């Protein structure tokens, strides 16, 4: 499972750091390519040189050790890895991870990496049970980070309790059992997938527009996971602040009609189309070509809106045998009922419904929860998790049905 895998090992400052040396040896024996990053505190317990000799790689400690001008080291390190393991993970580093703090090489690279993350905590029993630590671990678990539970046994403090780092062989075995590279089966190999994302903009004048709060996160997460599952992915995106996921071909658009044009250019050659974008239903009939000036003695002005094309509906009517069309439905009430109506009206194969009245999910949020509705009448409620994890769940379910 780990043969040829690029594994980043993050060592933080606890007495169990010595066990990380043995763990790194085991990874190398498994055929993994290993690079190590350490916090300054970890260096108090074991020497970076020992890891360097084991891995034959420079050990990263200082964020500003930028000796290669062609890269930014912590981003380069983060992007290189296919798996990130924090061993031992102190309460301090876990707290920083849970709160997005990036104040040293380890936490900066961990914030930047998109690789699956496994945390192997080791600390005093009372620190492990402290509500703050429990809260931080729960938060990270919700975001899809994996944990290897500490073992019960004799602690460095001189008494027994929960908090020991399990033996390195045990940690390795548990990581293997997580089956993190399961997606390598690439069930979407040979498939071409089109995904739309973000909120379209409809111009009022050169400096103003009508839009919505879609961040693109859900669409980008689906695109990223589809690539990992072997698909060729074309992402038609409204402008977002998000980085383009690795391996995804992207085309940017502004308006609903711009999105329609690009989607139709590609649709005949794709196997699966997923419309995640929040597309404006209406546009301004006559956008001004110059900035609209304030009229001093008028309290109201009127904008006339006209209907935009319904791209999803168009795909539903154009789709040929073998093509699957999937839409999202953002609803604030009667979510399932309205989503079912969309399934029929738009001739989609699936509608993925979400309740956007819940501020903790949906537009702009990092977490999301959806129900997948199929034209064959199934309703699958997925758990509330990060958009990255949800993307995997959505694909898993869609693939089972395709
Ligand atoms: O981008 P994020 O911040 O991550 O948020 C994710 C999301 C909330 C945007 C996403 O989960 C979502 O719900 N996307 C659909 C938003 C939407 O416009 O829903 P709708 O119910 O208005 O439209 C139904 C479907 O028709 C959608 O697939 C939409 O892309 C499509 N549509 C809508 C209007 C239109 N003119 N053409 C379309 O193709």
Automatic annotation (TrEMBL):
GO BP: coenzyme A biosynthetic process; pantothenate catabolic process
Region (Phosphopantothenate--cysteine ligase): 193-402
Entries under Pfam families matching the protein: DFP (PF04127), Flavoprotein (PF02441)
Single GO cellular component term: phosphopantothenoylcysteine decarboxylase complex
Pathway where this protein functions: Cofactor biosynthesis; coenzyme A biosynthesis; CoA from (R)-pantothenate: step 3/5; Cofactor biosynthesis; coenzyme A biosynthesis; CoA from (R)-pantothenate: step 2/5
Comment on bound cofactor: Binds 1 FMN per subunit.
InterPro entries referenced in this protein's UniProt entry, alphabetically: CoaB-like_sf (IPR035929), CoaBC (IPR005252), DNA/pantothenate-metab_flavo_C (IPR007085), Flavin_trans-like (IPR036551), Flavoprotein (IPR003382)
Region (Phosphopantothenoylcysteine decarboxylase): 1-192
Domain named Flavoprotein: residues: 5-177
TM regions (residue ranges): 7-28
Catalytic activity: N-[(R)-4-phosphopantothenoyl]-L-cysteine + H(+) = (R)-4'-phosphopantetheine + CO2; (R)-4'-phosphopantothenate + L-cysteine + CTP = N-[(R)-4-phosphopantothenoyl]-L-cysteine + CMP + diphosphate + H(+)
Positions with a binding annotation for CTP: 281, 291, 309-312, 328, 342, 346
Any one GO molecular-function label of the UniProt entry: metal ion binding
Domain DNA/pantothenate metabolism flavoprotein C-terminal: residue ranges: 189-400
Keywords (A to Z) from UniProt: Decarboxylase, Flavoprotein, FMN, Ligase, Lyase, Magnesium, Membrane, Metal-binding, Multifunctional enzyme, Transmembrane, Transmembrane helix
Domain of life of the source: Bacteria
Cofactor: FMN; Mg(2+)
E.C. number(s) listed in UniProt: 4.1.1.36, 6.3.2.5
Role played: Catalyzes two steps in the biosynthesis of coenzyme A. In the first step cysteine is conjugated to 4'-phosphopantothenate to form 4-phosphopantothenoylcysteine, in the latter compound is decarboxylated to form 4'-phosphopantotheine. Catalyzes two sequential steps in the biosynthesis of coenzyme A. In the first step cysteine is conjugated to 4'-phosphopantothenate to form 4-phosphopantothenoylcysteine. In the second step the latter compound is decarboxylated to form 4'-phosphopantotheine.
Family: In the N-terminal section; belongs to the HFCD (homo-oligomeric flavin containing Cys decarboxylase) superfamily.
Name this polypeptide is given: Coenzyme A biosynthesis bifunctional protein CoaBC
């Amino acid at each position: 499972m780990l043969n040829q895998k690029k594994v980043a090992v993050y060592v933080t400052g606890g007495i169990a750091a010595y066990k990380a040396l043995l763990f790194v040896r085991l990874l190398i024996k498994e055929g993994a390519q290993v690079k190590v990053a350490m916090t300054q505190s970890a260096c108090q317990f074991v020497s970076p040189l020992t890891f360097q000799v084991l891995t034959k790689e420079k050990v990263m400690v200082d964020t500003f050790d930028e000796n290669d001008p062609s890269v930014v080291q912590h981003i380069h390190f983060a992007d290189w890895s296919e798996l990130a393991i924090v061993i031992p993970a102190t309460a301090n580093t876990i707290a920083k991870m849970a709160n997005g703090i990036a104040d040293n090489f380890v936490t900066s690279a961990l914030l930047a990496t998109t690789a699956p993350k496994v945390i192997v905590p080791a600390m005093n029993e009372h620190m492990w049970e402290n509500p703050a630590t429990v809260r931080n671990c729960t938060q990270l678990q919700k975001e899809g980070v994996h944990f290897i539970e500490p073992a019960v046994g004799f602690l460095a403090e001189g008494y027994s309790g929960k908090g020991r780092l399990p033996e390195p062989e045990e940690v390795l075995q548990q990581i293997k059992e997580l089956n993190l590279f399961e997606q390598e089966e690439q069930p979407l190999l040979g498939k071409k997938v089109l995904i739309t994302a973000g909120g379209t903009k409809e111009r009022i004048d050169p400096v103003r527009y009508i839009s919505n709060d879609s961040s693109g996160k859900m669409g980008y997460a689906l695109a990223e996971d589809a690539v990992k599952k072997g698909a060729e992915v074309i992402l038609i995106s409204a402008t977002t602040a998000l980085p383009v996921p690795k391996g995804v071909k992207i085309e940017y658009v502004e308006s609903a009609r711009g999105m329609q044009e690009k989607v139709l250019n590609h649709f005949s050659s794709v196997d699966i189309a997923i419309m995640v974008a929040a597309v404006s239903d209406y546009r301004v009939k006559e956008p001004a070509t110059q900035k609209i000036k304030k009229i001093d003695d008028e309290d109201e002005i009127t904008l006339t809106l006209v209907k935009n094309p319904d791209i999803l509906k168009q795909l539903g009517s154009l789709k040929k045998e073998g093509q699957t069309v999937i839409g999202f439905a953002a609803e604030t009430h009667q979510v399932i009922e309205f989503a079912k109506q969309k399934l029929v009206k738009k001739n989609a194969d699936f509608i993925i419904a979400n309740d956007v009245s819940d501020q903790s999910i949906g537009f702009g949020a990092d977490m999301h929860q959806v129900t997948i509705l199929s034209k064959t009448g199934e309703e699958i409620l997925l758990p509330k998790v990060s958009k990255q994890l949800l993307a995997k769940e959505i694909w898993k379910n869609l693939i089972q049905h395709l």
